[in-house]
Amino acid sequence: MPSHLSALGGLYNAHLSIHILIILVSVPVALGVNFNQCLADIQGGKFGQSGGTDNHGRGVAISNATAITYELCTQACGSAPEPFQWSVFSQEFSSWLLPWLALVSQLPFGSEDKLDNLTSMLLTVGSPTLAAYSLVLTVLNGRWIARRFSSYTFPNTHLAVRILSSLQQSPLHINTDYSLLSSLIVLPLNDDWWRDLKEGLEYTHTWSISAVTSIAWVIIAYLFTVIDSFIGDITVSINANGQGVGSLWIWLLPIVIGWLQISPKCDTTRLFKAVNGANKLAYVASRDGDPILASSLSSQRAITLRRGVGDPLYHDENCTVPIYNYARFLPWVQAVETVSDMFRSASQQACDNQAVDRSMEWEVGENYATGARVNRRNRIGTCAQVDNYCLPIGEPSKGHKTVWGPDVFSRVLIASSIALSLQWGTAGAAIVVVWFTPTTGHRKTLARWMAITIRRIGKILAALNAVWVVVSCLFQFSNFFDRCYCNGSVLGQGVTSWIVITFIPDDLSSMKGAWIGGVALAAGSATLFVIRVMDGQHVDAER
């Protein structure tokens, strides 16, 4: 992947963070509230003897209070937040958020359009479920195609599996007209086509020193900050603490590891170069039986990649960024099924010792007993013979095929379940951390345009969510949420809420327990996700 694409996500997040930071720092400190002094005045009786509670919201005398009501808090302290503290902000930001923003640059991009790459980054950060869904779907597709072709014995079957699996990130198009696909599968002169394309697709975006360094930085920083938050005084700067932030972002780690392990072929330039280069070697059967170069007949080929057709309905499908694999899923499955049907028929014909030219006797090829080879002479014939060789035995034509491929719904269900488990295993951990912290913290044309509109709305929402995730983290580290309204969780509990002044041992014990559970839940969900991806890749490689 080109370096300017890999750095795009990181640069965007860096610029966003800098702009927000400038806004935060520029807020006059004079507008802030000194909560320590304010709470001391309350406990000293300056604002009367009413409004005191215990840590569960039960009313008590102000002299014995460990918490105060929201009404008293706003009366005594106002509605402004705690002043911005650079020392707290810089430490929490560099420990909890910065490593994750740097890790975004390791996501696979590859589109020629920088805006598409930026959009994919925003979609990933703004919709982790979609990112995980596309990743798991890619792994499941690899396993499915390996099983689909596992019983075929015709030459180049294993190359077809590798090629079709590698083209999941591509706008794949299959053309069965003019004997193009049947010739590509049957004719021995096209063996070079399969080998050349397979070699052209063997470039990788996989583990590198920078990727390993980024991942190691994130893991080590996360472990150190988790340990530090437990062995230190957790009541200090509790509203600016990054425990919830760390659990919220940990989903990004298995996503990056998964894509690095899969090494998706998503570089638009290389993909088109590989396919177009191989197509120069493609032969097609003729009427007299002598194969000729397909380029001498027309510009059409059996397997091609569609360039942008200018139709916004197909924009995501044509974009090679891996997160859009969900949009290519059904077209890719249909393309694979078309190729699979022809390989299946050719394999059955070969197993029945039937040559392409039925007037010729079957000649046993090298290692034929093991099904590894078919004599080249058995694979030569006219265009009509080649087409018939790839038709299902006993069936005159393919007939009408459904738009749904085999096992589609099961793969969608599995991918959705795994993606949601990662999303809510990590986000849920962040919710646990915050929740158990005491309340000091917080028709056709119509259908076509509907599809386009819904997709664009979804992208906008994901982009806004990505920005909000970063902004909310920065707000937390800058004490923006350290105000009476947020400290009392008024949004959820209403004006009857209370704000804890003094932590009691039971509070600290339950809070530490929740933090430990949150870390375990987030780390466990991320680890299980990586194991599932690795296991899928291992099974695929064995086949």
Distance between the termini: 27 Å
Discrete helix count: 22
Strand content: under 5%
- Overall pLDDT metric: 80
Number of strands: 7
Cross-sheet strand order for the largest sheet: 1-2-7
Query: Any idea what the shape is?
Result: elongated
Question: Which runs of at least 5 residues are low in confidence (pLDDT < 50)?
Answer: 1-12, 23-30, 368-372, 440-446
Structural class: mainly alpha
SSE arrangement, N to C: HHHEEHHHHHEHHHHHHEEEHHHHHHHEH
**How can the largest sheet be summarized?**
3 strands, antiparallel
Gyration radius over CA? 30 Å
* Helix content range: 55-70%
Structure explained in plain terms:
This protein is mostly helical. 59% of the residues lie in helices and 3% in strands. It has helices at 3-6, 8-26, 35-43, 70-77, 86-103, 114-126, 128-149, 157-166, 180-186, 191-200, 209-231, 243-249, 252-262, 268-279, 315-318, 325-351, 383-389, 408-435, 444-477, 484-487, 490-493, 505-542; strands at 52-53, 67-69, 172-174, 283-284, 292-293, 303-305, 498-500. Helix 2 (8-26) crosses helix 19 (444-477), helix 7 (128-149) packs parallel to helix 16 and helix 12 (243-249) packs antiparallel against helix 18 (408-435). The chain is elongated and about 110 Å long. The chain starts with a helix and ends with a helix. Residues 1-12, 23-30, 368-372 and 440-446 have low confidence and may be disordered.
